[in-house]
Amino acid sequence: AQSVTQPDIHITVSEGASLELRCNYSYGATPYLFWYVQSPGQGLQLLLKYFSGDTLVQGIKGFEAEFKRSQSSFNLRKPSVHWSDAAEYFCAVGALDTDKLIFGTGTRLQVFP
Amino acid sequence: DTAVSQTPKYLVTQMGNDKSIKCEQNLGHDTMYWYKQDSKKFLKIMFSYNNKELIINETVPNRFSPKSPDKAHLNLHINSLELGDSAVYFCASSHRGGEIEAFFGQGTRLTVV
After folding, report:
1. Which residue in chain A has the smallest CA separation from B95?
2. Mutation choice for B interface testing from A100, A102, A103, A109 by most B CBs within 10 A
3. What 3-state DSSP class applies to A113?
4. Of A33, A62, B17, B28, whose CB neighbour count within 10 A is largest?
5. B107 and chain A in contact, CB less than 8 A
6. What is the rounded distance in angstroms from the CA atom of residue A104 to the CA atom of residue A101?
């Protein structure tokens, strides 16, 4: 069965510091991977996605993620965090034969000035 | 020009009542979804519809009944509301296939008292 694990429930960083949010997935075939961000009281906004090809994908707001098949991971990174990045981040996996996304439990990012 | 819009944004109601949440998308997508986000921020799919046809029903109690009058609308009707139904409900839409990202509405925070 498909599953997504986000090991870090809560991360706190200082503004300007680098960031890496971890995501591990379980899926038998090639997964389709997504990172979404949810600001307080808001819906989910897609940051980036991986379907195939280059394993390093660029997204909006300066985020990037790297697909590592050998580690079943799709970690999200940003070189310099801004205070406006404080939000909940969700990793999700989709598949060709399904119409649904399986979400991780989310990582809450707090940014200190 | 909101892509996926749902109403109301907040809904407070008493146990036992019946309520509906409406969702509309103007993206021309053929698939629409309802996701439930619980108090721990966990997101789980409830239903998906493709061209007005029910595709996914994730063992949701039959008090929940989705209705899709056309492929741009997917409403969620809930009968005999219970305290445990309190959550944020997200509508989403996409083209069919797990490799296609879903666009989410702003969410409806349902509180049952």
Report:
1. A99
2. A100
3. coil
4. A33
5. yes
6. 10
Cβ contact, residue pair A100, B104, below 8 Å: no
SS3 category, A72: coil
- Number of structural domains in chain B: 1
Residue ranges covered by each domain of chain A:
3-112
Q: Which fold has domain A3-112?
A: Immunoglobulin-like (2.60.40)
What tokens does A111 get? 């940014």
pLDDT digits (tens, 9 = 90+) for A27-52: 877 788 999 999 988 889 999 999 88
- Asked if A74 and A92 count as a contact pair (C-beta separation under 8 A), the reply is no
Q: Distance between terminal CA atoms of chain B?
A: 34
What residue has token string 């961000």? A37
First CA to last CA across chain A, in angstroms?
41
